[in-house]
Each structure stands twice: as structure tokens, then as C-alpha cells.
Write a structure and sequence with these properties.
Layout (H helix, E strand, L loop, with lengths): L1 H16 L4 H33 L4 H16 L2 H12 L7 H26 L3 H9 L4 H31 L11 H12 L3 H25 L2 H4 L5
Helix pairs in contact: 2-5, 2-7, 2-8, 3-5, 4-5, 5-7, 6-7, 7-9, 8-9
């Protein structure tokens, strides 16, 4: 048993303590948070815009928006980011992190547009007509009839989209960005043992996903949405 704990301590020491390798994980953690939350929040705003454009009364606007969002969804995330970093912004001195955030934001926005669009379609047209008949303005109809039902429908998928956004950031290491996955690769290469580095990164990803999921679950409660308590 003593030999087991000695070996365990040795592995922990060389993975996290020796040469202050824990700094790689800290730097990767903050970079992962930056990329995830930036692309998720900005992607939500872009998604609302795309959703509005896809429901536009102008046919060519709907067509162009649908084609654009479909194209970005079909392109693998790493390939899309490489296009932004090396092709689209390759000729200007834009930091790689900013290029990556733009790429992730647009891709996330395309997914968000589908989520919001599907949620809006679940609202029965008759309910909106009834609200207008009762004298509500278009804004009041949206605020009190469309929005609550849309949010209630979209939240579960919205939460899952955050997890997807978190997972998609794991490819940025190929662009020389120090995220959690990149930190694990560097430490594993130095220790010749990936076990503890991967376990640490896996645990951190789980904690981030669980924490944000718990916060979004709070938003589904009555005191946040005015709906029925879960």
C-alpha cells in the first residue's frame, strides 16, 4: 500500500508541481472560459439576429441567411477556425484569439438561430391573435405571450448548446492557443504519462459544464420565468 501512495504522489508531483506545471492548467482554464463564454454570449446575440432574418418577410434575406447558417454548420469547427485565422484574417495583424472568438461566435450563432426559430414556431398563432384581439400591442404580445413560451421551450436545448460550445473550444490547441486540452498535451509530452493530466482536464470540463448547467436550471424556476415551479 505504501508503494502505491508513493507512486501516486510521484505522478501528481511530476504532473502538477514539478516545474510549476500547474500553471499550464490555470492558463488553459482561463483561456477555455474566455473562449466559451465569449462565443456563447455573443453567439446568443448573433443567433437572435439570424433568427429574425430567417423569419424576414423579404424572400432573398431569408434565403441568404438560411444558406449562410447552413454553410457554417456544415463546416467542421477546426476547419472553420483555420479559415478565419489563416485566410480571412490572415493578412491583418488580428490576434489569433480574436479570430477564433469570431469564428466560434458565428458558428454558435447559427445553432442558436435554429434553437430560437424552433422555439418560436411552437407558439400557436391563435394565441398571438387572441392577445392582439384583447388590445395588446405587438411588443406586449411578444413580451407576455411569445417570449415566455419561447424561453421555456428553448432553455433545455440552450443549456446543451453551452456544453457543445465548451467542447468545441478543445480544438483551438491546433492553432497554438493554450486552452485546457493544449495544456494537457504539453504536460503529457513532458511526463510521458497522460493519465493525471487528462483526468484533471476532464474534471475541470465537467465542473464548468455542471456549474453553468445548474445556473441555467435556476432560470427555469418560477421566480425567474414566472412559470410553474419545476
Amino acid at each position: 500500500m505504501a508503494e502505491f501512495f508513493d507512486e501516486l504522489y510521484k505522478q501528481i508531483y511530476v504532473t502538477f508541481i514539478y516545474e510549476s506545471r500547474w500553471r499550464f492548467f490555470v492558463d488553459g482554464f482561463w483561456m477555455t472560459l474566455l473562449l466559451t463564454f465569449s462565443s456563447f454570449i455573443l453567439g446568443t446575440l448573433i443567433g437572435i439576429l439570424f433568427c429574425k432574418l430567417k423569419m424576414s418577410g423579404v424572400r432573398w434575406v431569408r434565403g441568404v441567411t438560411k444558406a449562410f447558417t447552413s454553410l457554417l454548420i456544415q463546416i467542421p469547427t477546426l476547419v472553420l477556425l483555420m479559415l478565419f485565422v489563416y485566410i480571412i484574417f490572415g493578412s491583418i495583424s488580428l490576434p489569433v484569439v480574436i479570430s477564433v472568438i469570431i469564428g466560434l461566435t458565428l458558428k454558435t450563432g447559427c445553432y442558436m438561430a435554429d434553437i430560437f426559430g424552433t422555439a418560436v414556431e411552437t407558439v400557436a398563432p391563435g394565441e398571438v391573435e387572441a392577445a392582439r384581439t384583447l388590445g395588446m400591442t405587438r411588443f406586449q404580445s411578444f413580451r407576455y405571450v411569445i417570449l415566455p413560451q419561447t424561453v421555456k421551450t428553448a432553455l433545455p436545448v440552450y443549456k446543451n448548446q453551452f456544453i457543445s460550445c465548451l467542447q468545441e473550444t478543445s480544438v483551438v490547441g491546433y492553432l497554438a492557443i493554450m486552452d485546457l486540452t493544449r495544456a494537457s498535451d504539453i504536460v503529457s509530452a513532458r511526463t510521458f504519462d497522460a493519465l493525471f493530466a487528462l483526468l484533471a482536464v476532464t474534471l475541470i470540463y465537467l465542473i464548468i459544464g455542471w456549474g453553468v448547467g445548474a445556473l441555467i436550471n435556476l432560470a427555469e424556476r418560477k421566480k425567474h420565468l414566472g412559470g410553474e415551479a419545476q
